[in-house]
Amino acid sequence: MAVAKKVIHPLDKYLRSDRLPHIWCPGCGIGIALAAMLRGIDRRIREGKLDRNKLVFVTGIGCSARVSFYVDFDSAHTLHGRAIPFATGVKLANPSLEVIVVGGDGDIAGIGGNHLLHAARRNMDLFVVMITNFVYAMTGGQLAPTTPLRVYTTTTPYGNPEPPLNVIKLVASLNANYVARASVTTPHYIESFTYKALGMKGFRFLEVVSTCPEVYGRHIGLRNPVAMLEELKKRVIYKAHPVVDESDIDWDKGIVIGEYVVRNNPSYLDLIKRG
Amino acid sequence: MKREFLSGNRAVAEAALLSGLRFYAGYPITPASDLMEYLAERLPKVGGIAVQFEDEIASINAAIGASWAGAKAMTATSGPGFSLMAEGISLAVATETPLVVVDIMRAGPSTGIPTKTTQSDVYQARWLAHGDYILPVFAPWSAQDSYDLTIKAFNVSEKLRTPVILLSDAVIAHMWETLYTREPGEVEIVSRKKPVEPPEEYKPYKAGEDLVPPMAVFGEGYKVIVESLVHDEAGYYRQDTRTYREMVTRLREKIMRNIGVVYEHEEYWLEDAKIIIVSYGSTARMAYPVAKSLLSRGLRVGFLRLKTLWPLDEGKLSSALSKADKIIVVENNTGRIYYDIARIAGRDRARFSPILTVDPPGFNEVLEAVSRWL
Lengths: 275, 374
Ligand SMILES: Cc1ncc(C[n+]2csc(CCOP(=O)(O)OP(=O)(O)O)c2C)c(N)n1
Ligand code: SF4
Known about the structure:
The structure holds 2 protein chains of 2 kinds. By secondary structure, chain A is α/β, with parallel strands linked by helices.
């Protein structure tokens, strides 16, 4: 804090640069996702649609959740799985705040799955970004609810016997106003979807398919960050109007990204006439 | 001051509103549901909000979030739901979040008997969560006391930036009694201390003399850091012994240094007492008349009612009990406060009269339990 800020990058103004270097492994996709999100946020701030002093980052626990360490906004690094209810309390106590939740797939859809589905059902006024790396990375490579069938993880040494959860399908089936998917191989979509979500009300959900070369890469034989990114890039298919039925993540058939749901249902705050 | 007729739960709700409650989060559970139902009606009328969440885990985390957005927040539950709140309690402790958690005891373990009370969750209130910490626990014995201790719970939580547990029980919660409520201005209402320094100089966990850091909340431009990991004054995660030691020591000390504010008990006829009966909560409602009747029969009996169950002011308690030959603890469990009294007053003087009942104990039942030591 005492350190004078030296601006080397245009996004430095949104970072607690005295906390760098960050903890992420070289080649990790989370940094790409954060930078792209910050560009979307920056556009809203420059437009005067968002006040940086009214922006709150709420995260749970995990590699992805560590983004709250580095952003120079009000931020909360809370409990594993509990970022959504914490954020809900924040938003309802002060509706003038824009509250963004970021977390891993385990954090948001595993241990926090119950909160996710109820926040979506309520159309709670939150923007939730889930970073899917297909594994519990921070704890060293255990099974996540998104881990594909048959993949070897440290807790499925004979291959994962469980079909993965399609979180896009889950959230889309509920009352969310915005459901989109991007990939760290397409940061411009992370940016534009973030930008768009920040102009909407209600529950907004963005899944970012990411790369974890350190842990997941090891599991699937793609330990090299560049190779992993290249492999993911080959599989990502952007569609301007994707349908939920094509949202299953399939490493062989491809991963469809785009905006699955855009609607204008009354948000929770509309419904309770607050804010 | 106004004379009213309220249940224990409604007294808690009214006192919370007077204290400035603006955010309530909860999940239905007997015997706490009616507290939420009442607030669901009352809170929106004062510009607040009550939300029924998907579970108690969400409830406590939402209440913590609301507190960081500047609202006075509360949740209420009973044993099973309180168990689910454990991790949230530890988050509130570590992040120094003002928060009131009402736990209305019923019979356990497990689902137990939802509609009936015991006093089995005294240790749960003290030590529910993981980690090295203490937090204040208050136990009312009447509707009036529910009202007064709720105001105290809010004031202490705001003054010391800590979660506070109000440990009521099924009897107190649903019993209707007359009580005196206060009007705004008739009682001191404490709110968290705000920073005086500009945002560039503010450190969210830097405390002054009183060991309680001023609290900036979200949206004020302070770029607050709420940190669940062990952190330094800036809120930055540190893994070293020094930071850990400083944090854990200060969290404890900020409460112990204010033990005079936190701790309270009531004394009856202690001056000449050779025998002191100690009790609390709904059980004290019958231990008190038993003590009084023994006194009227010529026995030198005194009565001490604990209002604060944690932390205890050991010095104050020890001197209050110093002249008695025997101290008889009456509580509705297999031994909780008894072990504290035995430690503080000495095993040779401490006696235990457990009452294991799910119905409010009768006069004779308590008299019999106490009489074995007379
Ligand atoms: C209640 C609780 N259980 C378990 C943990 C240990 N834990 C920390 S992070 C994590 C999983 C992280 O996976 P994910 O949420 O997918 O995030 P990633 O690290 O992959 O970004 C777990 C299980 C914890 N902190 N709290
Ligand atoms: S373990 Fe994986 S997800 Fe975590 S920082 Fe390293 S590469 Fe990223």
